[in-house]
Specification:
Blueprint lengths: L3 E4 L2 E4 L1 H12 L9 H31 L7 H24 L12 H12 L9 H12 L13
Antiparallel strand pairs: 1-2
Helix pairs in contact: 2-3, 2-4, 3-5
The structure holds glutathione (GSH).
Amino acid sequence: MVPLIEDDAVQLWESNVIVRYLCARHSSGRMYPDALPARFDAERWMDWQQATLNPAGRDAFLQLVRTLPERRDPQVLAASIAQTEPLLAILDAHLARQPFMAGAHLTMADIPIACEMHRWWGLPLAHAERPHLRRWYEKMLALPAAHGALDVPLS
Ligand SMILES: N[C@@H](CCC(=O)N[C@@H](CS)C(=O)NCC(=O)O)C(=O)O
């Protein structure tokens, strides 16, 4: 499975654990907040991405990107869209209240949500307008680290 990281003696899998590790190692106190309320606010959104947002959109991705058109199941696609859209409404309302997922500054929580939005908005669907989510995503896209990740097509 991917991703996997080897960093000296550390070997890790699970994408969000890798994000936590890299933020703790290279951005302790910023991307990996020191204060427990801020850290666990970020942690909460990362777990929500893994447990709720990612599974909701997975079938739409598999149907539209990984399945031949003649083998697609419109009901599976519709169910995935129906599960995902209310979650995007939650994100849009959340980001209407604050600039980043865990408050005023970029943290580790923004990374998996941005990757998820890259996947969702890369799908050939009629996307509902999510102005606050879109504004936040544009900021994520402008980060140097986004190049090669958020600005590449789905495959
Ligand atoms: N929860 C894991 C999921 C990892 C995962 O599903 N990886 C997929 C690619 S996104 C994979 O390696 N698939 C290859 C396979 O299943 O053989 C994570 O976030 O890292």
